[in-house]
């Protein structure tokens, strides 16, 4: 604090900071200088009878909002924000830690991993071999790496070289399958023949299980479509019955629809009739 210029404090607005008004009496935000750089001093006044065990986390949220406001004012770097709490509650001394790490279930793991440099997977410096040898699903990452190439051909070549990656089309279920094929089909340089070839390569490298998976997926979709079709037919029958003035309970018995669905249909019919 000795390096702070406390003689030229400039009070700043705090309306943009979202507060829990049941706990916060007031706050003050100042701007000053530290080594000729702007810094913010944030003071939060607390009087609550039950102290907040997660106070350090609350302050972090407020600090982030102050930083966001600073950026919105045209600055391109984050400011230093020094938060303080002025406590005058009933419990004495203040009963909780002021360390953010104590807000985590496991403080030691938090200290080791939290608020460090973020993990980066830089595809621009990784070779295809690097991606293929990972014992994790990196199919979509490979596609991103080669998004400017003839994608289907590249992916076929890669899966032939690293068949271990093909198995993830089954292990990962619909999510990976939808992502990969939707992305491939959206490109102008891919034709249906290339997609068929890709499916064949994946199938060969999964012992034929991939085609079985696709067939099961298609059958499930057909069953869902048939069920939806039957439901719509029942709804249409119910509408006809209701328009004929048939009692709701008899419509339920005659169509097999549940009471809520029939009542909803009756309400829709009544609304249309009024208009």
TrEMBL record:
GO terms for biological process, alphabetical: DNA recombination
Domain of life per record: Bacteria
Transposase (putative) YhgA-like domain sequence ranges: 4-156
Gene Ontology terms, MF aspect: double-stranded DNA endonuclease activity
InterPro entries, alphabetized: Rpn/YhgA-like_nuclease, RpnA, Transposase_31
Listed Pfam families: Transposase_31
Homology family: Belongs to the Rpn/YhgA-like nuclease family.
Protein name, entry field: Transposase (putative) YhgA-like domain-containing protein
């Amino acid at each position: 604090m000795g390096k702070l210029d406390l003689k030229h404090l400039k009070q700043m607005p705090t309306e943009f900071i979202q507060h829990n008004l049941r706990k916060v009496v007031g706050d003050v935000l100042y701007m000053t200088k530290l080594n000729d750089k702007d810094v913010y001093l944030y003071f939060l006044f607390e009087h609550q009878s039950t102290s907040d065990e997660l106070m350090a986390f609350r302050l972090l949220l407020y600090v982030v909002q102050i930083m966001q406001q600073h950026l919105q004012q045209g600055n391109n770097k984050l400011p230093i924000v020094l938060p303080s709490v002025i406590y005058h509650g009933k419990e004495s001394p203040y009963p909780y830690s002021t360390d953010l790490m104590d807000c985590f279930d496991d403080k030691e793991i938090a200290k080791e991993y939290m608020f460090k440099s973020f993990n980066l997977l830089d595809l621009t410096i990784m070779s295809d071999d690097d991606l293929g040898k990972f014992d994790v699903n990196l199919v979509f990452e490979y596609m991103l790496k080669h998004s400017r190439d003839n994608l289907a051909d590249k992916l076929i070549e890669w899966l032939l070289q690293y068949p271990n990656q093909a198995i993830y089309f089954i292990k990962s279920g619909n999510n990976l399958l939808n992502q990969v094929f939707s992305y491939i089909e959206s490109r102008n340089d891919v034709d249906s023949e290339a997609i068929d070839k890709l499916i064949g390569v994946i199938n060969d490298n999964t012992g034929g299980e991939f085609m079985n998976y696709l067939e099961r997926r298609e059958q499930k979709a057909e069953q869902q479509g048939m069920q939806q079709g039957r439901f719509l037919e029942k709804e249409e029958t119910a509408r006809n019955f209701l328009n004929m003035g048939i009692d709701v309970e008899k419509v339920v018995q005659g169509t097999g629809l549940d009471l809520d669905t029939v009542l909803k249909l009756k309400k829709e019919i009544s609304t249309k009739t009024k208009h």
